[in-house]
């Protein structure tokens, strides 16, 4: 079982284990050793988001990578999917992103992509962890001066932008007013350039990062903010990204939030209409609403559910050869288009669907009727298996028995934060909230901070 890597890399408070300098250096050494090939020096490309800790973490891991024998190139502040793209297109041995995605500015993280541009499999992460722990235990990690990698930022960004625009050749925003929330994160360095040549009126918000304002009252975890901007600016569509722009959420012209479920519905129908939806199948997760499943079924589309985490969605997509998959939170995966969730690509493809349809975003999503759903996050001091605590098990069982076929209960730990997530959806909203509160109280009583 992995101890450092969660569902999306290593993530913690910057400066505290496992994101202390010694461990970060060890990660660099271990990764360099892992990607080394006989007779070849490993080449690694590195990018980061806008947190104030990103630069020293990048410099520390660069020192470790070089200690392990790798050469390192920096793309500077850039989105996570851009690093995945550049890793693959330029034949790097690995790609690294210093980011904690949607987390607060005090947190940070290390995401790793293999030479194919995909996130590392669990087994590979476990093997890297083993070497990290061995080095730390045996004091094999020496102190070293942090090192900045040589940067080629502008050319990397420009190439990535060209690749995105190539995916929507012919897209025009003429006659449209679009408002974009960059979350004061990595999208701030790419979105203005990307949307500059598409016509229409594009208004960029929250694109002035100061190291501590990433995701603060903005971004994909607070899509109601961009929805408010849409109303204020009388815009046609609002788009909002998280800190590293690997996901996107939207708002229609009425200021209604459009989440990843709705995006998957529109994309699935569009691909189906063009004969590009393999086996009429979409891969979602356990968190996607029952309303999405019902809407897809009306269009003759089957929905499969994977565990939460875009890497697990991708794994099931590869197994079933599905053309489309994603998460309610806005990670959307398009086979052949990208190797990981890409908020900027998702935004362009959604705008292209709207453009070609001649309809508004509200019209295109009008028939998606979602079940009432609530998610309660409970801060926990440790992630003990929930099935081992009888009081929690019995409370969950009571909810499942009461809801039967009229709802769903999904309880899981966050893969990136010290949280237990209680998700319930049901036709009866009062019953939904009652059972969500009961389960959250049981978890809080046993494991709460």
UniProtKB/TrEMBL annotation:
PTM comment: Activated by phosphorylation.
Keyword Secreted (UniProt): no
Keyword set includes Isomerase: yes
SUPFAM superfamilies in the cross-refs: Phosphoglucomutase, C-terminal domain (SSF55957), Phosphoglucomutase, first 3 domains (SSF53738)
Positions where Phosphoserine occurs in the chain: 101
Domain Alpha-D-phosphohexomutase alpha/beta/alpha: 2-135, 159-255, 259-368
Keywords assigned by UniProt, alphabetized: Isomerase, Magnesium, Metal-binding, Phosphoprotein
GO biological process: carbohydrate metabolic process; peptidoglycan biosynthetic process; UDP-N-acetylglucosamine biosynthetic process
Cofactor: Mg(2+)
Pfam families for the chain: PGM_PMM_I (PF02878), PGM_PMM_II (PF02879), PGM_PMM_III (PF02880), PGM_PMM_IV (PF00408)
Superkingdom of the source species: Bacteria
GO MF terms held by the record: magnesium ion binding; phosphoglucosamine mutase activity; phosphomannomutase activity
Catalytic reaction equation(s): alpha-D-glucosamine 1-phosphate = D-glucosamine 6-phosphate
E.C. code: 5.4.2.10
GO (cellular component) term, any one: cytosol
Binding residue positions for Mg(2+): 101, 242, 244, 246
Designated name of the protein: Phosphoglucosamine mutase
Species name: Terriglobus roseus (strain DSM 18391 / NRRL B-41598 / KBS 63)
